[in-house]
Amino acid sequence: MNNNIDWKNLSFAYLKTDYNVRCYYRNGKWGEVEVSSSENIEIHMASTCLHYGQEAFEGLKAFRGKDNKIRIFRMDENAKRLARSANGIMMAPVPVELFEKMALQVVELNKRFVPPYESGASLYLRPLLIGTEPRVGVAPSEEYLFVIFVTPVGPYFKEGFKLTNVAIMHNYDRAAPNGTGNIKIGGNYAASLKAGKIAKEKGYSAVLYLDSKEKKYIDECGPANFFGINKDGVYVTPESKSILPSITNMSLFQLAQDMGIKTERRPVKLEELGDFVEAGQCGTAAVISPVGRIDDLDTGISYEVSKGGEPGPISKKLYETLRGIQYGDIADKHNWVTIIE
Ligand code: PLP
Ligand code: COI
User: Fold this and answer.
1) What is the CA(124)–ligand 2 centre distance, in A?
2) Contact 86, 93 (CB under 8 A)
3) What residue ranges do the domains of the chain occupy?
4) Which atom of ligand 1 is nearest to the CA of 248?
5) CATH of domain 164-327
6) Which atom of ligand 2 is nearest to the CA of 61?
7) Exposure check for the chain: N or C terminus, fewer CB within 10 A?
């Protein structure tokens, strides 16, 4: 293990590790996997990723259990989503088997950076796919680079499993109705930076985006999906063409069902926020970040979505169950975890 790292106080930030893994797509095929200890990549200044946004990424985590085994959570789903993202912006998809092989290899190579069980931290894997061919006219590249680097991380929101407030701002969109909101490409995040900064300056942890066509329905937060527990005890999460299908949300949905909680994935009207007694942002980085209040900065309406200033009981139970499976404390009955001995 590396004793110079303060595992318990890690934030969600980049820390140098020993190795990253890389693979190049040239002449219509993927090459051999390369192991690198350099933090830099050399690409042509006219690469399509730099000019025309041919860039997609993923985020997944590896956890060290009490038994010292390392568990990677649902990497097949991240692999499949990266392939969908690649297809969405005309990039060469990374085969699922190649993604999984490289993910296992990069964790194995950086084992000493997987935080100890007691810290509650994890190793974040950041797979990245970019178009590298020089092009001045707008057209897809025929050459790609796929990299996975890793970094040990703590909570995405510094508050961890504590309430934060989120803001609705009607004059900013992160994705268009028939655009790229349902895939994980850099452009969506560029589009969210300005509203995100304004919200943070006003003391909110994130923006809760509305559907960009009618501004009537809830979409998702800048870096995470959104769910609520309504007064009938139902787990409700938005259905929309412009939100990212979150693997965490999909897992919570299943866990809620396992607990006998009713679940609904459907369009969620803005005014329904008034029915929620619990709410949360959910994602790989965010895990569950429980929401206290949602302020609509344009109408001035505030929605209190938790009671008594504390995360609600269902959010807490879902959070503990998800983390329990990830760290190996709770049986993995859906086979979500890949164990590295
Ligand atoms: N929505 C957005 C916009 C995200 O960036 C993320 C993070 O990956 C999520 C949702 C959550 O997805 P997942 O649970 O697969 O990490
Ligand atoms: C993740 O949860 O893995 C994300 O990619 C969210 C954020 C860091 C952009």
Assistant:
1) 10
2) yes
3) 7-153, 164-327
4) 14
5) 3.20.10.10
6) 3
7) C
